[in-house]
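Q: I have 254 residues here and want to know how they pack in 3D. Can you give me a structure?
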Amino acid sequence: MTEERKKRRHIEREFGVPFAGEILDPSQWTQTALKKLPATGPLDLPTLFGRTAPLIVDLGCGNGRFLLGSAVWRPNCDHLGSDVLPVVIRYATRRGNQRGSTNLRFAVCDAQRMLEVYLPPHSVAEIHCYHPQPYYDPSQVHLRLISPSFLALVHRTLVPGGLFFIQSDNPGYWRYIREIVPMFFDFHERIGRWPDAPKGRTRREILALRRGLPVFRGSGTARRDLDESTALHLAESLPPPIFDADRRLRELDE
């Protein structure tokens, strides 16, 4: 067996799309699980990563596909992913461990709490949020993540001029996002796919593209003319995320 074929055997794929990085010999594995969050107060980020570097955060990171790639391609940045589902964090940490990642951590935590409790103000260079759950049941509308108060928290957590990335395949959600996000960020919708991952940055995006669903993408820099109190006051005046989520898309979510 040639060395090239041996190397190919250590590349993991999902739906035919490779994950970034090679699966290393177990002697080179690391520990990427943040198994215990502080009882009170924020994370000590320099201690957590053993250095001070720009921090990339993925809220609702799922199985870690995006952060794995970013951690491989941007070794000078640290990466933190959180998701409320322990099962997907187990997949994410296993993959991070197997690749010997030292600039990557995963935690079981919901996005709102991560921002409110564990990430200090102005501590994050980029916040990513891919395919937030639209919640189709009218009784669960209040659980929708992208709201004015959440965006105010994102704005507070980012460094001045920090970047917020958002993506959805739900047209109703996207109409709301494109109306509300520009209140806090200099926001631009992206035409076309992310150049670093044309087949999809996330598992959900790969599935949506395979089914021929439109995927809506955008990013923006935190508005510098908003301080924390102004952003919170603004959030109180904006409408909540009430929209038609289109139940025909529910199968893909489930």
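Q: Anything worth noting?
A: The first strand starts at residue 13 and ends at 14. The CA atoms of residues 55 and 78 lie 5 Å apart.
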